[in-house]
Design goal:
- The protein has 13 helices and 14 strands.
- The chain is of the alpha/beta class.
- It is globular.
- It starts with 5 loop residues before the first helix and ends with a helix.
- The relative contact order is 0.17.
Length: 429
């Protein structure tokens, strides 16, 4: 891992230290009361949804129109500037490389299964996300995972194993239940435990995921939510997904959760950088979601720096706009946020993942192909198409066409693929 640049590291450390000192004597946290007039869904999506908000659609950035489907190509030149393994992608077709940058949703209830399978067999997608809610248990989940793992071949995904992901945070955001799976409490409750207890429990929960064939958990939430506005924070605080209300609580608990899961052979994904704890709308169900508070030196960013320093290999990007960092684009489409801040200032050299790009209202002002291109241009490695797998062909076609047209973009694709493959190489076989 590259060292964090000293000026910002000092600023972040000071921000985290100051915020911690102010709250170190706080007593046990209390959970937020539901927002008046809003019903809590019994089965929320990755970021639990509320009623859609009627906000203006963002103006799409100018990129080439979504291309028509292409036929498999000869292997494209591989290796990117600074690559330590210039031959790592020798023999890969461009389509196979692009497929490693996409994670397709697989419904745990069997819906749209043909679409999800086609993403792997026809569009070379190398990663799946178990989507929805299931009470079928560990054995049935393993059978589902094995069916998709069987699709891996030299022709489809160059023989590389899949990242198999899900949302197993706890509370209202727990995809997998039933025989063999624990009922995981919500994050606000987990945050009341000491770090050792949480790490032990998280290792046990991770063992359940590993037994089901899951090797990547889109958790923990590291968004910093102020106690006084938690009930008015639709994506995180309202659903008690936050590890308490202070930088100290978030870093202690989220890092303990991650350590436990990794000990069980399951990688974790810190989310949602640079923080969704202060927005007043949900990016899943509203457009023009803007944060006007978080800056590069805010405690909200410092908690993610702590998670990275603790060994995180995956970070998920928010799709909100951050006026004090880059007001011109959602974070997942912003080179300022992804490349300059996360990779440059915080020194993160692992895999950068998007929040859902398939159905979230925040990104509907762009076509699926444009969303994919913008994210990779920004420095993202893995595009999550969890809620609507039907958008995958347009995404992969757009990435392939752009890489053929633009050698610089092709190098970006290669660099992203190498980071994804490097992360896969660290997972238990």
């Amino acid at each position: 891992m590259r060292p964090i640049r000293k000026p910002l590291l000092a600023t972040l450390a000071a921000a985290l230290s100051t915020a911690t000192a102010l709250v170190a004597c706080s007593g046990p946290t209390t959970e937020p009361s539901p927002t008046p007039g809003v019903r809590v869904s019994a089965s929320p999506t990755e970021s639990p949804r509320e009623s859609p908000a009627a906000s203006p659609t963002p103006s799409p950035a100018q990129v080439p129109p979504s291309p028509s489907p292409t036929t498999p190509s000869e292997p494209a030149p591989s290796g990117s500037a600074g690559s330590t393994a210039p031959d790592a992608l020798a023999g890969w077709t461009l389509e196979q490389k692009v497929g490693q940058l996409v994670m397709v949703g697989v419904s745990v209830d069997g819906a749209a299964a043909d679409v999800s399978r086609a993403a792997v067999t026809k569009h070379h997608v190398g990663n799946v996300f178990l989507h929805g809610r299931s009470r079928a248990g560990v054995d049935a989940t393993r059978e589902l995972v094995d069916r998709y793992a069987a699709l891996v071949s030299p022709k489809t995904t160059h023989g590389e194993p899949m990242l198999v992901a899900t949302d197993q945070e706890g509370g209202l955001v727990q995809v997998l239940r039933g025989p063999g799976f624990s009922e995981i409490p919500r994050a606000t409750e987990q945050a009341r435990w000491d770090a050792d207890k949480l790490e032990r429990r998280a290792e046990a929960w991770g063992g359940e995921l590993a037994a089901a064939g899951v090797n990547l958990n889109l958790a923990p939430v590291m968004d910093l939510v102020p106690r006084e506005t938690a009930a008015d924070n639709p994506p995180i605080g309202y659903f008690s997904r936050n590890y308490g209300y202070t930088p100290r609580s978030v870093t202690r608990s989220a890092n303990a959760f991650s350590a436990g899961q990794r000990a069980a052979g399951v990688e974790t994904v810190l989310k949602h950088f640079p923080g969704l704890g202060k927005v007043t709308q949900n990016t899943d169900t509203a457009t023009d979601v803007v944060d006007d508070d978080i800056a590069a030196g805010s405690p909200d960013v410092a908690v993610f720096a702590s998670g990275i320093d603790a060994g995180a290999r995956f970070v998920m990007m928010s799709t909100a706009v951050y006026d004090r960092i880059d007001p011109g684009a959602p974070a997942a489409f912003s080179p300022v946020v992804v490349t300059d801040l996360l990779r440059g200032e915080l020194g993160f050299d692992g895999v950068v993942v998007t929040d859902d790009l398939s159905a979230a209202d925040q990104v509907k002002g762009w076509s699926p192909g444009e969303r994919a291109v913008h994210a990779v241009e920004a420095g993202v490695d893995l595009l999550l198409a969890s809620a609507d797998p039907s958008v995958v062909p347009e995404m992969t076609d757009a990435l392939t066409r752009r890489a053929r047209q633009d050698p610089g973009f092709a190098a970006d694709v290669d660099a992203a693929v190498e980071r994804v493959l490097a992360a896969k190489a660290t997972l238990p076989s």
